[in-house]
Amino acid sequence: MPIWVKDTRKEYALAPEGLHQAVCVDVVELGLVKTSFGDKHQIEIRWQLDVEDEGAGLRPLVRRRYTLSLNEKAKLRIHLEAWRGRKFTPAELEGFDVETLVGVNCQIQIVHTLSDDGRKWANVESVVPIGKGMTKIRPSDTYQRVKDRNKPGGQVDADGEAVPF
User: Fold this and answer.
1) How many domains does the chain have?
2) Taking the C-alpha atoms of 130, 112, 10 and 66 in order, what is their torsion angle to the nearest 10 degrees?
3) Structural domain of residue 80, as residue ranges?
4) Do residues 42 and 52 touch, judged by C-beta distance below 8 A?
5) Which of 157, 162, 163 is nearest to 29 (CA)?
6) Structural element, H or E, at residue 77
7) Which residue has the higher pLDDT, 116 or 12?
8) Rg (CA), the chain
C-alpha cells in the first residue's frame, strides 16, 4: 500500500514593504545550522510590526536569522549597532545578551524578494532606532515566545511546530 506525502507549506500574508515601527518579540536559539559557509551557530530575531493584517486581524511577524557573532563584518553586529545608534565598546564586545532585545522598539526596512521557486519573501533589510517622539509599541498579547510554548513530543522547530522525531 503506498504512503503518500505532499507539500504542506503554509501560505502567509506578506508583511508590507517599507519602513515600519516594530517591537522585538522573540530571540530564538537555533543552535548549529548548516550554511553554505559550514555549520554556524545561529539565532532568529522576531519582530511584530505596528500595522495590522486586515485579513487575519493580527500584526505581521517578521524574522531574520543571524550567525551568533559580533565580528565587525557580521550582519548581527551591523544591525545591532544601527539599531542601538552607536558602536559597541570593547567591553560590550566581550559579550552581549541578545535576550535584552525582547521588548525593544525599532524601525525595520522590509523588502520583498523572489525565491528561486517563485515564492515572495518579506526580508528584514535594515534595523534602526525609533524616531524621536515616536510612541513605543508593545508585543501583542497573542504572541507567545518559542521558549515558552507547549512542546508536544518534546521538541519544537523555530516556528513552534512539533518535531515528531
Assistant:
1) 1
2) -60
3) 18-137
4) no
5) 157
6) helix 75-84
7) 116
8) 17
